[in-house]
Amino acid sequence: MKPQVTVPLSKVMLPNLVVLKPTDTLDKASELFKLYPFHHLPVVDDDMILVGMISSTDLERVCYGKSLFKQLNKAAQNEALLRSLMVNEVMVDAVFQLSGKHTIQDAYSAFKKGRFRAIPIVDDGFLIGLITPLDLVRYYVEG
Predict the structure, then answer these.
(1) Taking a C-beta distance cutoff of 8 angstroms, is the pair 4, 108 a contact?
(2) Domain containing 119 — which CATH number?
(3) Residue 95 included in any domain
(4) What is the pLDDT of residue 31?
(5) Is residue 127 assigned to a domain?
(6) Is the N end or the C end of the chain the one with fewer CB atoms within 10 Å?
(7) In a 10 Å sphere around its CB, with 0-12 CB exposed, 13-18 middle and 19+ buried, how is residue 121 labelled?
């Protein structure tokens, strides 16, 4: 039996997201990545309009890139660095996105072509959810 690929993403996406603001510091992003089992955080303005995305890899790149050849106490340096930089200095602001009306097939095609691991779901400019390849697998395995 062929899987149902015309299901809208609004039925499969992760709603009720944890988000960051552009002016949050990177230490807040770091804490959220430690608290929750995800690797991408949408960045929104006060009206929940998507303005960017930040990944745990982006955060690691900042820490390793800035402290690789520094003193021995890299942990303290990284903490200071994360307190001093804002999310909007590191986030990706040109983010591929889909709407809740797009289908599982659309998301699959985007993941297959793209170099990203999470797609924000946006309707009328407002962030309403997020979809990852794992969500697609979960949908087919769990029904």
Answers:
(1) no
(2) 3.10.580.10
(3) yes
(4) 94
(5) yes
(6) N
(7) buried
Question: How many structural domains comprise the chain?
Answer: 1
What is the extent of the structural domain holding 16? 9-142
pLDDT in tens, 29-50: 999 999 999 899 999 999 999 9
Token pair of 20, please? Answer: 């960051």
Distance CA 108, CA 110 (A): 5
Q: How far apart are CA 46 and CA 22, in angstroms?
A: 10
Per residue in 103-141, pLDDT (tens digit) is 999 999 999 998 889 999 999 989 999 999 999 999 989
Number of continuous H segments (helices) and E segments (strands) in the chain: 5, 4
Does residue 84 sit within a domain?
A: yes
Share of the chain above pLDDT 90, in %: 68
3-state secondary structure of 61: helix
Question: Does 1 fall in a domain?
Answer: no
